[in-house]
Amino acid sequence: MMNRIKQKPELKGYLTLVLHAHLPYIRHHDRDDYMEERWFYEALTETYLPLVDMMERLIQDQVDFRLTFSMTPTLLSLLSDPLMQDRYRLYLSKLIGLADQEIIRLEKDPKLQPLAHMYSERFRKLQRLFESCDGKLIQRFKQLQDDGYVEIVTSAATHGFLPLMKTEEAIKAQIATAVRDYEKHFGRKPRGIWLPECGFTTGIDRILKQYGIDYFFADSTAVAFASPTPNRELYAPLMTPYGVSAFPRDPESASQVWSSENGYPGDFNYREYYRDIGWDLGWNNMEEWEYIRPHVLPTNERVNTGIKYYRITGKGNHREPYNPQWALEKAAEHADNFLYNRKLQAEHWYHWLDRKPLIVSPYDAELFGHWWYEGPQWIEMLCRKAFHDQHSIKLITPSEYLQEYPVADVGKLNESSWGRNHSAEVWLQGNNDWIYRHLHQAEERMIRLATKHQHVENHGRMKAALLKRALNQAARELMLAQSSDWAFIMDSRTVVDYAVRRTKNHLGCFHHICDQVDREDIDETLLASLEYQDNCFPDIDYRDYVSIQKHSPLSILPSMRDFEQLLEETKHRPNIFMLSWEYPPKHVGGLSRAVHECSEALAARGEIVHVITTSHYGAPHFEKMNGVYVHRLPVDCSGDTHFYHWTFEMNLAMVDHLVRYKEAGGRIDLLHAHDWMVQIAAREIKHSYGIPLVATIHATEWGRNQGKLYTELQQKIHHLEWKLTYEAQLVFVCSRYMKEQVQSIFNLPEDKVLVFPNGIRLPEETQHQSVRPAFLAEDEQMIFYIGRLVFEKGVQALIEAMPAILSQFPRARLVIAGSGPMEQELRDQAAQLGDRVWFTGFVDDTYRSQLYQAADVCVIPSFYEPFGIVALEAMAHKRPLVLSDTGGLAEIITHGAEGYKALPGHIDSLAWHITEMLLNPEVASKMADSAYTLLQQQYQWKNIAANMQEEYRKLDFYQTPIEAERMEVTT
């Protein structure tokens, strides 16, 4: 009998815990006794090092957790600065010395001396942790991200409050600088961003998308008051019209931690922040003052030392000694309470939503440890409890949630922030409004100079280098003046003089440099001094401020000279026009990449290919890109900005452009439309000029919704898909499975639908031997699965097959890479197998490639699969392959030739085929080689393009025999 798996209950929801790690750029090159610089030392000692220590304990105890950190570029600059690292070493040594002195001072105080011992041991432990990475704490965070435990997002370069900047160029420069800085530190581009103060206004999302940002965090009011009202309220991200996801802050979980009245940190058992020996000692005792004076500022200004002996105790002035054990027990109680309340939220919304609800809980990182001493312990206990609780909600990162639910509602977000009254009030009121006229004037001056000198190389090598340095430093000074921290301090009325001085000094330096640039007479000595003084962002590029040219939809044809050249290049042979709403550098889904690869492959084979697509911030409106003529059209939105209605405006722009191009003498010989979004333009041009039309259906609304069309919008999209397939002479799909689906739901004749599979780029050959994963012993056989952990992927069947495999290969190990709603359930199922099943969690591209190379066999045990790009990845790495005989997946290989096909959900079949691969490594290797050859023949874009060309030719749009003959010679 067939042994099939029954579906088990799923988790009810997810929790994303976000820690916003930020400090303004408080490095002072001249001396180290500024009070503000101590903010950095205190944050390291009380927050960042304890958090790293906490996460490493969790990993050591094999607790799988997920946390999200936003690390601002200014903080990264401080953490990576050798000067700040050395100053911190000195600070920590003095602090250890003070704690040791406290042990002696309190030798007759049995209540407080144990706490002095606690601090002495704690500071030494943090010192060892800091030195273990040679002060390079960023590398520890990078490793945690590379290992899949945390996700790190960026922020604007200097944490400038973006909605109050006057120009788009200034916002763009803040984002561009941040992305480059992130990539330098973490070796990858950021997927997400923390908008400073969660400040959002319309248009910021467009700039984020330009730089590859997939998501950001928003205040609850941004989504709650979005238009149209989001169906999933605050329990799922909302996509903006530019394809960026906004994750809304959950007010309920925020208040449980933040609330000054009822928040956890105010509990009477926790350590009192405001009772520090730096303030307590020496007011009426000269001996005490002499004792503590070396640990305050040279101006005798008192500061916190970090040594605090009292708990909150109560609301009066009476305080009792801190009891660490009581505090630890209370933190455990609060972690239980927090998790319990999140479960209630998740269970409630689980019954109302079409997906698992997500609760996003963002906090300032320094709340944990600095303000709330027990905060890191609370997070640790929360992670442990979430991991061990069988029915709890699961911690997840934003990227993992988007991977599981890539489709979201689209809406226009409300302008908002997480500040007072959910507005810009904190950063724009009577105490700080004077700064903006100066900042706005500086923005405009920077744009003028950057635009004037965008081709600085024209000035000669030596002069150009100096001019470029000056312009980059001007950009640096402007960004530092824009920091939201200065306006925040002016509002809070704390160190106002410092904030005013920083704003004025940076603006003064900015204008001084700009004056020299205007004269083209740079004082190199002064410039070098400023570069040493304010040395953040070594990769800053002043050209980010180059003026953005505004274009009308009616004026985006190439210049007359370029247009004449274009006509000359393209008049002798047929011109193919691809219509696609997205194309690089615009990436929203997989459509952009597919059209890009297809069009360039066709161009490489001699076809003249144009792509008509939509404009993207920073990309030229017309260019020849790798042989493809790319026309990017601005789209003026009118009325409702919902994506469906926006596509109508886009189609109008496409029709207008193609008509003007045709009437100006351009050739249009074939239209190739990609998905329903361009149906209107494709049909209009087809009928207006009698031009053949081909359509590619990448996915269907029917398929996305499992064969059910619930809403009016879904029915409209389905109808547009049908109309596109009706109008097209040929319809292309990626698999026979999709062909059957399209034929069935759109009632198409069999010969009208043609299969062109997806392609894949082969990995670059490496000259070095691949590094075997640390957890995998040399004598172990690795069985590898990668993908989402959901029921239809069949991982549960693979785990159930392991005992039969282990009976023949006791040293075999199943490695499961990826995440999803069934992860905890699968871990529970695999627990009895011990370390024979290893979960890696989410993996990046580099680690994924390493796992592929180490695998003895790759397994795809899906119950349902439309195509299966993962199978191509395994083939590209020349790994033996066992996959399920289902859907489009089954079409990729021939059983016994390029791999094995197991019956879907059949445990014995799966175990037998995997065992066969391990028993016969030579046969398995030959199959992998055959699969690689098949991949080269059938799944490379150059081959796919050749087959597509043959179908194009059958449409007989080559107008003369000479042209057809020339095409034969070319290809």
From TrEMBL:
All residue ranges annotated as the Glycosyltransferase subfamily 4-like N-terminal domain in the record: 588-761
Pfam families in UniProt: BE_C, Glyco_hydro_57, Glyco_transf_4, Glycos_transf_1
Domain 1,4-alpha-glucan branching enzyme C-terminal: 438-545
The entry's keywords: Carbohydrate metabolism
Span of domain Glycoside hydrolase family 57 N-terminal: 16-409
Record carries keyword tRNA processing: no
UniProt keyword annotation of Transferase present: no
Domain of life of the source: Bacteria
Record domain Glycosyl transferase family: where: 776-932
Protein family: Belongs to the glycosyl hydrolase 57 family.
The name this protein goes by in its record: DUF1957 domain-containing protein
